[in-house]
Fold:
Amino acid sequence: MDLHQIDIFCAIVRHQSFSRAAETLFLTQPTVSGHMKNLEAELGVKLLDRLGKRAIPTEAGEILFRHGTRLLEERDRAKQEIEQLTGRISGVLTIGGSTIPGAYLLPPLIGAFKKKNPGISVQLSIDDTAKITEAVLAGSIRIGVVGARLSDPQLEVHPFESDELVIAVPARHPWARKRTVAPRDLKGQPFILREQGSGTRKIMEDRLEKAGVSITDLNVEAIVGSSDAVRQAVKAGLGVSILSLRALTDDIKAGRLSAVRVAGVKMERHFYVILLKGRTRSPLAKAFLDFILNKSR
Structure:
């Protein structure tokens, strides 16, 4: 059993796919399959079950994945610490962002960080807050940036950039020229919601609830899985929605959408950097964390 085989095995588990693992490791699928056959023969146990197109670890596979992940982290940490002696940082950093920070905040920060450290590679996953949090807790993502503060005691949480939620309406909507509307006015409007697990939806629900408006009061026309899809639905006239002002900037400037505030309801929020508490940080993870937190101050 060598680290190359463990690297391949862990990639299969992370992607639940032989073909995706082969693609990310720049190997052929027969090569990946051959390594897994040899590894299972050496250990004398089955490590992966194939369920349709998915590859799922067996009980033995889960044990190997847990220990293998740690071995690979130690390998990367040793390499990075040695390279630090020469002033270089290298390696692969896995980052997760919920919809708004993943699309609007992290890409320019990653670009600036890579410009300073050209030897590194970054894998950015974008999903809702709940799924990014699950990935950080599971250890498959090193650093997450999400749109709602979480109280899980396993997480280390750092406030990041600020944001504001507003009502997004089409340019020809009766509210388009208004600065504010009363919370009760939302009850009669066709409304587009983000999915459960979205940080934007969680903040919206909490703030409107305090103003006497619950989700059940809204005339929900659709529940959509991304801010971009909600934005397109609003432009198409399907309804109004509450979204991050950051996601609307280009459409507001182009006159396609307008932003309206909810009178008496504070919709400001922070994004948060989340990490698994107690997990040893590689030099690369520490350097990126310091970089983004310093940029946000």
About this structure: The chain is about 45% helix and 25% strand. The longest helix spans residues 59-84. The CA atoms of residues 30 and 244 lie 45 Å apart. The first strand starts at residue 48 and ends at 51.
